[in-house]
Amino acid sequence: MNTEQGATVRVTRRFTATAERVFDAWLDSGKAGKWLFSTASGQMVRVEIDARVGGSFTFVDRREGQDIEHVGEYLEIDRPRRLVFEFAVPKFSPQRTRVTIDISPLAAGCELVLTHEGVQPDYASRTEGGWGRILDSLAVTLA
Amino acid sequence: MNDKIAENLPRTPASLDRTLVALADPTRRAILQRLSKGEARVTELAQPFAISLNSVSKHIRMLESARLVRRRRVWREHLLSINPKPLDEAATWIEVQRAVWAARLDALDEMLQAEDRAASIAPKRKGRSR
Predict the structure, then answer these.
(1) How many C-beta atoms surround the C-beta of residue B39 within 10 A?
(2) Which residues of A fall within a CB distance of 8 Å from B1?
(3) Dihedral, CA atoms, A21, A25, A28, A32, nearest 10 degrees?
């Protein structure tokens, strides 16, 4: 992966749930399909997760009749503190980008820091995944 | 999606690409830092760096082609200044990427809270809901 080209995006968020529950939600196919790489307007039709270091994953979200695949591989799995994986959306770009999740337990709940490296400008995915997603979530917030 | 918003998006990923590549180098970022304080000559820009004037010039040319730096000539002097527009564009784009993840993490939190509600409504019917 070439992280030289592209940006690093970092997001921090607190959860009331324990670090273990938040961590597991990334690797449990029944749970991850409900929120990760999914869109409110799309339908998650397939989630395959091989939760081992070197194991791969596939998420298929059907958006307006088009199947959008997110495919990747787990690089580090250290429950419940750290998860590192790479992924690509082959439909838009063969470029893999790396996501690192660091979770720290708090007195109540936990804090998650997400770092996404090598993010490339990609107009297609930005339109379909990005803005659609943001508008969806705004709609939920405003509803 | 809303077409009005789509119109206002930066249209050309190629220009964003150039901006991000230009910003990926620490020397080029330092040059921009210096220019953010005001116009400067090439020789002034080269001064703090332990590299040749030639290689600083190369960095400057790359910043120019990414339109992050503008050059104007006063007699025989070349004065360089920063053009913040591509920076704004890149910042907006990064903000969008952050918002994508923030929305996903919101959805994760929502799912976990829904699990909690389901567990408190029907605590004895089943084990932990999946």
Answers:
(1) 13
(2) 127, 131-132, 135
(3) 160
| Contact yes or no for B107 and A35 at CB 8 A | yes
List chain B residues with pLDDT less than 70: 1-13, 123-130
- Note if the bond before A105 is cis, omega within 30 degrees: no
Across the interface, do B108 and A35 touch by the CB < 8 Å criterion?
yes
Partner B contacted by A38 (CB < 8 A): yes
List, in order, residues 6 or more apart from A2 with CB less than 8 Å away: A95, A118
Q: Residue B56 corresponds to which tokens in the numbers above?
A: 């600083």
Residue B37 contacts A where some CB pair is shorter than 8 Å? no
pLDDT category of residue A128 using cuts at 50, 70 and 90: very low
Query: Tell me, what's the ipTM?
Result: 0.84
